[in-house]
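Q: A reviewer asked whether we had any structural model of the full assembly, not just the individual parts. We don't, so I'm hoping you can provide one. Inputs are below.
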Amino acid sequence: EADIYQTPRYLVIGTGKKITLECSQTMGHDKMYWYQQDPGMELHLIHYSYGVNSTEKGDLSSESTVSRIRTEHFPLTLESARPSHTSQYLCASSGQNYEQYFGPGTRLTVT
Amino acid sequence: GENVEQHPSTLSVQEGDSAVIKCTYSDSASNYFPWYKQELGKRPQLIIDIRSNVGEKKDQRIAVTLNKTAKHFSLHITETQPEDSAVYFCAAALGGGADGLTFGKGTHLIIQP
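A: Here is a predicted structure for the entire assembly that you could use as a starting point for your response.
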């Protein structure tokens, strides 16, 4: 079934650790996105990619980095996690019609 | 950059009544306006969208209207049901959304039985 997958779904980690949030999609889409959402609040775009080897920064300044080596895979990395990074991270993808579909999210807590 | 304002932040309606959520955007070049529904603990779900070459779009009980001159768009839900209770987000984008979406702050819709 075509879908967007994110792992882990929940992560509790200590300050200073390096973490990678995984996102993969079987939608056949070329464009992928990362959004940050605090509970009950709006979504903010932090990174996006038009396709392989393309990465762009979004509207919200973020200390995270992304890579796009394969069409279906768009991981997000935090080199040194801090409590201010505690949030939900949502991955999305879109195809030719630009409709964006979201993954289930990763809820990150940095202690 | 684009700025999207959404009102109201909370809306309570009786089951069977209609609900209207309004959004305004700042960038007159924006041309894609989707609406998402997010239930507690779930991912945002695209429920309807409209592009700037259309003034209104309808899908069963849900409709969206767009006024490009005034730079505002609205979500209309008729004959509301308990399962309509959720947070609804509007968004706006340039270039059809290829560079990502700018979201409003959300409306918590409560359907009273």
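A: Points you may want to mention in the reply: The longest strand of chain A covers residues 87-94. Chain A has a mean pLDDT of 95.
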